[in-house]
User: What shape does this take?
Amino acid sequence: MPLPQQADVLGPDFRVETFSLPPDDEGPVVATLVTLEPARPHGRAVLHVHGFADYFFHAEYARWWADRGYTFYALDLRKYGRSLRDHQTPHFITDLGEYFGEIDLAWWRITQRDGHREVVASAHSTGGLTMSLWAQERRPAELVAMVLNSPWFDMQGPKWLRGRAARVALERVGSRRPLQEIPRRTSDVYGRSLHREHGGEWDYDLGWKPLESRPVHVGWLRAVRRGHARLHAGLDLDCPTLVLSSARSFFGEQTLETATTHDIVLDVEQIRRWASSVGRHVTSVALEGAMHDIVLSRPEVRATAYDVIDRWLAAWVGTGSTSLVSDEQHEQRGEAHDGDHGA
Assistant: This one.
């Protein structure tokens, strides 16, 4: 059961509540839901899920949705941000399906407890992969659209990393030594391009989102690669999906300029290649000058991104009383949804 809501670190207009989840091998587990209520609600909601080595601090993004009447919810997944506890290995899981528990609880709160019948799923990077897989498995009746911000749809880097030998090695080591760290070259350029004390625009907790990212463990990467394989086999979501990416990636010598005008984390060609694997109605838009987290890009790029989302929502979801999903469809899909959850 969720604990009572309290004021969040983002300010008194943001409320936060913590969910207790079944413990794992490291001990107690929680997830955290942040909520921003609109001044003029129209009965719809957004659920946002963050990416790797990240947490929700995107107040501007939340207010953009709230200004349009959406109640905005953001989930800090287990072992991330507000949900990270001292006894835990940050972000460590061995199956992306482990996150389905907290997404289920958040969805129940949004749709059953708070009564929202139409929900837009929003997700960034690894969260985009997780949310797509969750939606494929759960198929909730209230899901009317998804907005994916630079979703992680494939392994970037040399071709051999995506080959059979690498896959077999990852499976073997991941099953035997899941907590083994993978040596990798890291840089703080992306973090410095974001944080206002290091050349960026944004203020956030560097304990929750370090400048140099987090260690990558073999068991966690195996879970991600299994998720990639499920996506590449083809999902079949019928809700409209918007996939946003930067126009270009850059993997050379990194500077603040390249970090703020390119995706220096993921390969945008892979994002666009696999976007159509999500479902039947996918719109893919490449934004010139965008960084990895599109809604943290420079102001003029963010303005373009918000305009794209706005026009896409108007076309596919509608505004006011107009809805993509009819009452009859809600009833039909609601029966399947209840069956999926068994309660």
Q: What stands out?
A: The domain at 6-341 is CATH 3.40.50.1820 (Rossmann fold). The chain has one domain: 6-341. The beta strands are 6-8, 11-24, 27-36, 44-49, 71-76, 118-124, 143-149, 241-246, 282-287.
